Amino acid sequence: MTDTAEPTTSAEGSGAVLELLSFKVGEQEYSVDIMAVREIRSWTRATSLPHAPSYVRGVINLRGTVLPVVDLGVRLGIASAEPNERSVIIVVDLGDRAVGLRVDAVSDILAVPGSGLQSPPELLADQADAFIRALTIVDGRMIRVLELTEVLPATEVAA
Amino acid sequence: MSDPMQEIRASFFVECDELLEALQDGLAALEGEGDDPETINIVFRAVHSIKGGAGAFGLDDLVSFAHAFETVLDEMRAERLDPTPELLRLLFRSADTLSDLVRAARDQAPVDAARVETLLAELEAAGGVEEAEDEPADFQPMAVSLDLDLGDEVAVPAEPDPLSAPETLWSIRFAPHPKLYAAGHEPLFLLRALAALGRADVTCRIPDAVPSFETCDPGASLLAWDIRLATPHGEAEIRDVFEFAEGLCELSVVQSDPEASVADLPEPVPSKGGPSPIHRDVETDPSRPVAQDLSEPMEDLPDPSPTVTSAKPETATPDPAAQRGPKSGATVRVDLDRIERLVNLVGELVINQAMLSQSFTEAGLAGDSTVASGLDEFLQLTRDIQDSVMMIRAQPVKSLFQRMGRIVRESSDAVGKSVRLVSEGEATEIDKTMIERLSDPLMHMIRNAVDHGLETPDLRRAAHKPEQGTVTLTAAHRSGRVVIEVRDDGAGINRQKVQSIAEDRGLIPRGLTLGDAEIDNLLFLPGFSTAGQVSSLSGRGVGMDVVKSAISALGGRIAITSSPGRGTSFSISLPLTLAVLDGMVVETAGETLVVPLGSIVETLTLRDEDLAPIGGNATAVRIRDSFVTLVDLAALLGYAETRRSCADGIALLISQDDGAKAALVVDRIVDQRQVVIKGLEESYGRVPGVAAATILGDGRIALILDPSDLIARPPGHGAASLLLTEAG
Amino acid sequence: MNVLAVDDSRTIRDMLRLTLTGAGITSHMAEDGRHGLDVLEGIDPDVIITDINMPRLDGFGFIDAVRRTEKHRTVPILVLTTESSAELKARARDAGATGWIVKPFDPEKLIRALHIVAG
Questions:
Q1: Alpha-carbon distance B43 to B21, whole Å?
Q2: pTM (2 decimals)?
Q3: Which of B263, B459, B503, B516 is geometrically suited to a Cys-Cys bond with B455, CB 3.0 to 4.6 A?
């Protein structure tokens, strides 16, 4: 398991303020630590990888490097729109490599105190469970903090 | 050791590699062309230099072996020893052992001490020389520690405390002969060094009859000096100062009467400066720039500031130009990382150029002739830069081939056969990164050739072949690739035996009718080994499948041909560099893909009349006298359902490594071009059937396929279905 | 002080440079006798250190050539030898060398020898 750049672990429960980039996947709102975000790109058609899992859209050219793109909607099991021109790719740092997350739209940058983060409650066999690192409430909306390490499991990658 | 020493040590081992290579070259030349004295010199110097450097690092084993080796070579140099074939064999073996010792010293690895001892004894016997030097003690290799805070210890042996050590008074007379000056000595410096030993009073004796200016001989030595020295040091140290001047002067060092007055001697001059104890009577040569103040050099020596090469010891790569041979022109040492970066940047440049071209075409500007020719030039320049940069990392295969010489020697000894290695094309250059990765595969192939390929001397004689077997190693550039061949003049492949072994091991079903090439290719199957008994070399079953994977990993191909009774030949084809690839860009089911040109035998336009259905849903296409199964690439990759009619497609005839053929059906061929290889594994992972990725002119990524991997199937099944003979 | 050091072994050249620089002495390097003569044209060393066994022009040939030049006729020359036999010393002396240093060289001895012949 790679360690991400997110300092949320240490920030949780403490007074430190965390900046989260929030975005929409279908109807739900998710977020990631802004520190893990390398850049945000508009959607470009990805080159498919043969026999790849359904949530792997393919690879795109990120300034000369090969970037795998994961369709978060598919990965999280959430109904979401097919990729279109308004889709956004959030390039995140997974420690040893980068991955692009296709989402429907980017919402906002939220400043959340560490104390405002709660562990996810025990939900029944909800596929999305494993992907939620923490929950927080902003302006009455529930924002899920994404567990990046689950997005593209290391087992996909050769040693 | 301090850091600079580590660097020099690392650099020393690099130098050893070069010297060992020169040594091999020289010995080979002596073996082939006789005893050219300059060659003997080169060989001597190589060993001599290794010895010299090794001594500095205290590598005793290496030094003593090199010394014995050097002695024999010195005898040869002095023509007291003839380079007979037996002697040369000894020298070759010694060179191999020297190489082992160097490696052992570098990696702190163990060495076969018994073998070294044996060779050492042989060398000493051959050299016939005992250690006859007068002062063998001086030869002790001293591990040098360059702690350069020399302080004021410099010109003086351990400085005893002037207050406590008893002083003796000496009378020293120093009268140089003319030869002293001719030898480059300067009495001033000698006297200064003497004065630094204690308290000195120096008087210069000028002869009464000083010749006039017109008649004097400037080379004559007329001056002499008397020195009264009070010093705690002994006579040995005093004479030491004049060590180099021995024989070039008259020197008398006499202990004085202790009653003699020492009161008038000036205070001892500490090396750090002070007034000169030398009287003004001394005529220093006015033409010699004596800007050297006595208080000069010994102060504040700066910390050792080594001239550091910017490279880390591990990556300090000697410039490939230096590898071609010593003194082949100015060279620069470059950090391997920087070259990586340059190679990557140039790769980007090529992609960028393609994208620019495309944009122009799309913008409708390409028709404009100024733009078109500008773009063409740009393309050409880019290609030229790319070629040049790729060649920076290129090195001749010579060092690799030389290593194989040793493998031949050792393996032929081990199995009791006489074998020689002939190599051609040693100057052929390939990417440095590939050279290392070729070492093991080549080694296996050569060992196999010696062990299995070549017959025993008896059999060879019976077959009217020369008793000595020959293994030929060649390298050449051919149509944009590097071709390396390993050939033996042995018995060739025993095809019956091979087929039956493959059947025994369950690698193929029994009773198949297989063509010669197919049988030969069975050797590449995992688990195959013809060793009936475990031989001393190949017993561990390092099979050709391992060799083949290694070659494939380099983007290369290996093919085998064999002629019974005549020999076997392996031909390896490698890309010039790992970074670019000649590819065919194709389109199928809306996806653009790249197929390595090297995998494509030919392209076919599919016509209905050439197609024939075969069992199930498969279709085969007739190519001349055989049928080849069609494989829908899009379906294989999961991009589309199987096309129903192949008639509107193009097929790429792929030759797999096992010789079987298949035809990949695509929608159309876009282009044939050189593409820059981008890895996929680091960013995503291994995808079966996909070798890598590349970036096309439009900025999109296209996958580079590995056709063999795509269609891999065991020959037993494939052979039957792929080669449908016309049964009517 | 500045020194010209001539040796075909890169390792020895590196070590000489390290020792000399540490002692505050400027050093120029050459790879063999002929190279040494080339370099000599552009500099004015206080002392020359040279190896014996070198390609193209060996130590003895080099010293001989140096002693024939106008400018450097009397420059002190130290030879690097791997053994200190009397025979080798005599040869060096005959060739015109001023002194000798035994390889592998002890930095202290080297610096001391330099001071004896060149201040």
A1: 10
A2: 0.52
A3: B459
